[in-house]
Amino acid sequence: MKKIAEEFFSHQKVWLSNEDSFEQTDLYLYLKLMYGEAPVFLDSGFIKVKKDNKGMTLFEHIYYDHCPEENELYITIPSLNLLGTKIENSSLGEKLSKKGYISVSPSEELKSKALSFFNKLPFNPTNIKEGRCEPFATLKLSESIWKEDRPSTSKETLQVKDQIQSFLEKKISYSQVLASLNIFDLNFLEWQESRFMKAHNGVDYKSFINLITYNTDHCNSPRSISVGAYHWYDETFNGLFTNNWEALMNIEDKKREMDSFKVDTNFALLINVFNPRFYHQVGEMQGDGSLYVCTANKSFKEITNRFEFNW
Description:
- By secondary structure, the chain is α+β, with helices and mostly antiparallel strands.
- The chain is 21% helix and 27% strand.
- The strands form three sheets. A seven-stranded antiparallel sheet has the order 6-14-11-16-9-8-7. A five-stranded antiparallel sheet has the order 1-4-3-5-2.
């Protein structure tokens, strides 16, 4: 098997000679295992294919168009119903693609109609046995991520959810691939003093984009969040083969921090969850009060319907 996955996810592109078959590469295997269906070549998709006389170059084509030329060949998961392949290149998309994250400013509407209500949501305290690496309390709208039936969710909570979903969809509307994401879910977290979360990346949720928002109005010393990259290959493939993702909840192998941010109500973070080499890490909370956080995700229901998830 030819190994091209590490280069593809490190540089958002990789070249494959005519002598090599894509179906005999670790990238093909990765996509098949991750999304539950064998990838194929079609006239639209999330990996752009540029052929030459000696082979072809594969470009990640979700967040940024790395080869902005007319093209008729892509790699995709065949069950996905994409709106198209047009991507309006921007610094936001380029950073999401190459670095895996970008900080954005919540709109005034989002702050007034969603973030300001975080502290009023009906949180459930976390069992003390879970330790300091878990939030003080959580609110999950269903027992498992990607479940759309939420009969017991309050009207106020659904209004907050709708505002966050709308903000996220506006931010990613520049890419027809991202705009094609057709399933959304989120959870809410309350953090208190001394609690933190180890480096993780969440690829096991099969998400393609993650938005993290905050309300820091009820604590006197909010914490930081750091983002970076790590040596993902062995641990991620092991998770794909065994469906045991514990190693990705505590990432340590050759971890390299790229940036760190002090969180605030006026700060939000978009994260590329398609690329397994990126991680984010929640710093320890200091001081009194409660910090409220929402993590929101979008994916393709044609993918998520194939799997059972821990949430």
